[in-house]
Structure formats: C-alpha cells, structure tokens
Amino acid sequence: MAQNALPWVEKHRPASLSALSEQSYVTDTVLKLVSTGLLPHLLFYGPPGTGKTTTILAMARHCYGAQLGEMTLELNASDDRGISVIRSEIQSFAASQRLFNAGYKLVILDECDNMTKDAQFALRRIIEKYTRHTRFCLIGNYASKIIPALQSRCMKFRFAPFSTQASKEALATIAKAEHVSITDSAISAIIKYACGDLRRACNLLQSCALSSSSDIEDTTVFSVSGMLRPSDIDALLRSVLNDSLDNVITAFAAVVNLRNGSLANIIPELQDRLFEMHLPAGTRGILFRALADAEMSLSLGCSEKLQTRSLGAAFVSIRRENMLMSINANMS
User: Fold this and answer.
1) Residue 113 belongs to a domain with what CATH number?
2) How far lies 179's CA from each of 49, 174, 182, 219, in Å?
3) Rounded mean pLDDT of 131-153?
4) pTM of the model as a whole
5) How many CB atoms sit inside 10 A of residue 88's CB?
6) Claim to verify: residue 168 and residue 149 sit in the same structural domain
C-alpha cells in the first residue's frame, strides 16, 4: 500500500524507541533485561491507544533489525480466539530452529484478553514447553481477563492513557507533517474526545482534515465527532434547573438528537460538567448515582426513553428539595 494511502494512525506510528518517550519506563526496563539476557515473558495491558503494540514492535525492531521477520510472530487473538491458532501457528513458530541467531524468538499476541479460557490454558502449556528459546509478549486491555496461570509467568507493565501534553505534542507533529492547519482549541477538543487514546485522537484528526477545506477549528471537531458543545450542556443544565418535568425531558431528547441519538453518549459529558461545579456532597452523590444507574441500565438494553425520564425526574426532584441552589448560582 502506498504511504499516502495509509491511515494516519499507521503512517505516523512510531518505529523507533526514541519516539516513545511517553512509555520510556517500559522500554528502558525491558532493554536492560534484554542486555543481561534475562528477558522474561511480558504482559502489556491498559486502555486502547496507549502504545502497547507500538512499543513491543519498536523494541523488536531495535533488538532484531533485519531479522525481525524471522525472529518475531505477531498474531491478533481477536481474529481467531479458538484453540487452533495456539496449536498451529504459535507452536509451529516456537518449535522451528533458529539457524543464524542465538537470541530469543518473540511471539507477540495482541488482544489476548479476547482468547477463550481453553486457548489461554493451551498457551500456558506452550509457554512452558518453549520457554528456553522463545519469549511471549501478551497484550490486552484488561489484565483481569487473563488467567492467573499466564499472569504469573509474565512481567506485567500497565500502560496509562496519554497525558494531555503528550497528546497535544503528538497531534501537533502529525498535523505539521500532513500540512494541516489546526487551532489550539480544536486540538483541545480532540484530546477531550479521545480520553488518552492517541489512536482515537489521530483518527479524529484525519476525519476533521478530510471534512474541512480550511483551518480545523473546534466547531469542526464537534461536528465530526458528535461531541456536545459546552453551550449545549449548559443549555440542558439551565432547563433541568428551571423547567417543568415535561420540558426537562424534552430538553434531554433535544440534546440526545444532537449527540447522534444516544443518551449513553451524553452521560459522561454531563457528568464531567457537573463534576466541575461546586456542589454539596449529598447533591453530587445523588446526581452521580442517577447518572450511573442510567448508564448501567442502558448497557443492559433498557429503554432509553424510560432512562431519559428517570434522569429528568432525578434532577427535578433534587431541585424541589432546594439542593441545587449552588448550581443556579454557577449558571447565572
């Protein structure tokens, strides 16, 4: 595939360890283990888009150079989560002879938290059998979904979401390389949308660049991503503080329509806005509990209309108890 045809997230994926400053503690530790010949099996886990796969690939390039293809096997467990991939591809690769390299071979298994339990137990046995010449790097979002027998055989590294500053620098670098003009407020909006997921941020940046014929501004980001503008949230809060229950429900429905028809997508933004306000502890607890209950109910497939009415009723009920006077002061 031509370089210009690649998605930006692949085109600008860091290829060297020097470009991975945000996860330098991982690379520094593992490279020290490599230099001493004491490299253990590895478990990289953390939220999506935090550089887990990129880090191990950059380390493999650093260690193997031109022999990267011969010494590494990369698999995505979500492509085939059954037992067959464990018994065939991994076993075949781990058992093959190393003709001209005395180092460890490396198996990179991405999204291994999606593997079935049977596949994970089979992988444990393969790790035990070929540990003399092969090292495994398991990658997943949730360490809790990986069986304890595998976790205990690996050195674990947690990848935290990218910081605001690191995300800002990465997006600015990509925008400059792609000759895209973007405002600081637009970058801030992308970072808020991505929540530390740099892959998500990069994809949104590319989408905004394709949809805009001029400079990318925050209005472009709001339009492309479906994010609510701060003014939309403020308008909703004014309604729940002053209007009748029927009008509050109508206001919720109007904001949901702005957010591509999903109440679940506006709950986090509403929660963030409420968290910024100086609320009494009791008020904050009741409101967050109502938001959490609605979000859980929606995830279980409950009626969105019913949850919208429930949220509206919760706000109106608290207002009637004179518990939101401080919010009225903040909104004035």
Assistant:
1) 3.40.50.300
2) 23, 8, 10, 20
3) 92
4) 0.82
5) 11
6) no
